[in-house]
Write a structure and sequence with these properties.
Number of strands: 4
Order of helices and strands: HHEHEHEEHH
Number of helices: 6
Number of domains: 1
CATH superfamily: Glutaredoxin
Largest sheet: 4 strands, mixed
């Protein structure tokens, strides 16, 4: 019975996945406008961030859209199709659950954030300037 349920959802993802990716592409939000200097500073800060994700996961799409809306350059790592990233996620975060944001601070300490809303709240708190979001 378990294999039947897994097969059903795998088939459903295979059918809906391309439509979800198309919707993500067509409805991509506009990013926060920044000066070149501000964007370079943000890019340096986000170099320590990695998003572990599955390409067609709706919660991952939600986080990727939010990243675009904040004009952030965060590396995405496909934990579904890349066994190395999957192993990193399991070893570091403790679960193969996506989306997961890996945050490495300047001292080399790593924090793993799970849940799309938690990740989006963190990114908004750290990288969004209220005056720019209001405009």
């Amino acid at each position: 019975m378990r294999w039947l349920i897994r097969s059903f959802f795998k088939t459903l993802r295979a059918i809906l996945g391309p439509f979800m990716l198309l919707w993500e592409k067509l409805s991509s939000p506009r990013g926060i406008p920044r000066t070149e200097e501000e964007q370079k500073k943000i890019d340096q800060e986000t170099a320590q961030l990695s998003l572990y994700q599955f390409r067609t996961c709706p919660f991952c799409i939600k986080v990727r859209r939010h990243i675009r809306a904040l004009s952030l350059n965060i590396e995405t790592r496909d934990a579904q199709n890349n066994p190395t990233y999957r192993a990193e996620l399991l070893k570091g975060g403790g679960n193969v659950k996506v989306p997961c944001l890996r945050i490495e601070n300047t001292e080399g300490e790593v924090t793993w954030l799970y849940e799309s809303d938690v990740i989006n709240d963190y990114l908004t708190r750290i990288y969004a300037e209220e005056r720019k979001l209001a405009g």
